[in-house]
Design goal:
By secondary structure, the chain is α+β, with helices and mostly antiparallel strands. It folds into 2 domains: about 210 residues, no CATH class; about 250 residues, no CATH class. About 45% of the residues lie in helices and about 10% in strands. It is built from 18 helices and 11 strands. A hairpin with a 2-residue loop joins β8 and β9. The radius of gyration is 25 Å and the shape is elongated.
């Protein structure tokens, strides 16, 4: 509890990490210059300078370019391109930029595509009015389309002069992946920390040498290393979810003696009760995913309702406070507050801007846990276990926003192997260590050898889909809304 979180993206307020382009933990390693390919010669640092000094100099050079550009009133695309060319060349070492045709503005090293639109196109994901060949596409989609269609191009950049985005070849059209930098915020707010990470990520040397295979570059090696670390993190997450289940189960038994007695006597079936615990955890996971992806509220929800939910009822607020030991107290109010959200999602609640989802949130899904009490100590510890991962370097926040289908399914599969048992005192929940070897394990009982997409089918398809469908029906451009 005393160790400080080290890979929260809030350390770099001007950067946004969407999807699994590069794992947050890897970004933190890059920031600390503990990743591969980060020696001074790897960045072609000028003699007599350290990397830190080079970054500091580049910040002032980039700031000078940006300040001059920001003074222009509604600069057209050609003016924006001139700024971007000078900015990338003198700030990030792109000394091999050449003009390109079609939707591209430049190519670097014959394989790094760069798309430029004017600042008037504020959102890179919205339809572009300046891309000459296809105005139905957004700048981001134009770059993604190029990367996907050209085997010799893996990484590229897209910018409107005030926002810059790093992207990679990505087969998924529904789950974008990128690192985005708010250049205006970086330079106007003197956000040197975010700039240092951006410089470390998109310096020309990070894309590999001209003529080398596209995969032979630091960015690709960092992505692969982050993916391997992500697999290890997935295993740790499964253990954290298991611990959360155990904490919740024992907490309910301790706070509800009558429930514990009925379970011990067999009046309540232990397996059925454990399935309730699973549904409770699934609800919490759903809320974290939906909140982090900004998918929980329908478009018609008012700002007052969103604010009331965010400040008074959201799991995000509880997750922010669960790292403080003082919140692990003997009271019962935290779980009672979450039950209000559960009931709102079962029937809908305009005051909180929540839709009626039913399904996982139906009233009959937690027959014993809905009326049970739970001390804050147990609930906040369980939420803590669901929100943070631990390794030898410290604490890493679980990135539910970027959690892929396979990762969610992997966690779900691991839970199916658990065999619940009551401790000798009847007041604790334990899991049989030999569960995977027992013939009666949950997967064999149900005949359920699930694919890794199972959790999404159970959770997201029955709960998030109504939200997505509603948004699609309301949107003027349904595809743009979902993308």
């Amino acid at each position: 509890m005393a160790r400080k979180p080290i890979t929260d993206m809030s350390a770099w307020p001007s950067l946004t990490l969407e999807g699994n382009l590069i794992a947050p933990a890897m970004v933190a390693s890059i920031d600390r210059r503990q990743a591969s390919d980060q020696a001074e010669e790897d960045y072609r640092i000028r003699k007599g300078l350290t990397i830190r000094e080079e970054i500091s100099t580049s910040f002032r050079v980039g700031q000078s370019h940006f300040d001059a550009f920001a003074k222009l009133q509604n600069p057209p695309v050609e003016t924006t391109r001139r700024f971007v060319r000078a900015f990338l060349t003198e700030t990030f070492g792109f000394d091999d930029l050449v003009l390109a045709e079609g939707t591209l503005s430049f190519l670097a090293g014959e394989r790094i595509p760069i798309v430029v639109v004017p600042p008037s196109e504020e959102k890179l994901d919205r339809r572009s009015q300046t891309l000459s060949t296809d105005r139905s596409r957004s700048p981001a989609f134009a770059l993604q389309d190029y990367l996907n269609d050209h085997n010799d191009a893996l990484w590229g950049l897209v910018t409107n002069g005030t926002v810059l985005r790093l992207m990679r070849d990505n087969a998924s059209l529904t789950r974008p992946a990128y690192v985005e930098a708010d250049l205006a915020q970086i330079f106007l707010n003197e956000d040197a920390a975010s700039f240092a990470v951006l410089w470390s990520l998109i310096h020309r040397t990070r894309f590999g040498a001209a003529g080398a295979p596209a995969t032979d570059c630091p960015l690709e090696r960092w992505r692969d290393a982050g993916s391997r670390e992500g697999e290890a993190a997935r295993d740790r997450l499964a253990l954290q979810v298991e611990t959360a289940l155990q904490v919740l189960g024992s907490g309910f038994l301790e706070a509800n003696p009558d429930l514990a007695a009925r379970l011990k006597s067999g009046e309540i079936d232990l397996t059925e009760w454990f399935n309730e615990l699973l549904r409770l955890v699934y609800r919490l996971i759903f809320l974290m995913v939906a909140e982090d992806r900004s998918l929980l509220h329908p478009e018609v929800a008012t700002q007052d309702a969103r604010k009331l939910y965010r400040e008074g009822y959201s799991l995000a607020a509880l997750r922010a406070s669960c790292v403080r030991a003082a919140t692990w107290d003997k009271h019962h109010d935290r779980y009672e507050g979450v039950k209000i959200v559960f009931r709102a999602l079962a029937h809908g609640q305009d005051a909180l801007g929540l839709p009626a989802l039913g399904g996982l949130f139906s009233d009959d899904k937690l027959p014993h846990l809905e009326t049970a009490r739970l001390r804050n100590r147990a609930f906040m510890e369980a939420l803590y276990r669901l929100s943070w991962l631990f390794d030898k370097t410290g604490m890493t926040p679980v990135n539910w926003r970027a959690m892929e289908t396979e990762e969610l399914g992997s966690v779900y599969e691991s839970l199916l192997e658990l065999q619940p048992q009551l401790g000798g005192d009847g007041k604790t929940l334990i899991f049989a260590s030999e569960a995977a070897e027992q013939k009666g394990n949950q997967r064999k009982i149900t005949g359920s050898y699930y694919t890794p997409d199972s959790l999404v089918q159970l959770l997201l398809d029955t709960t998030l889909d109504p939200v997505l469908d509603e948004r699609e029906a309301q949107a003027a451009d349904p595809a743009e809304t979902l993308l």
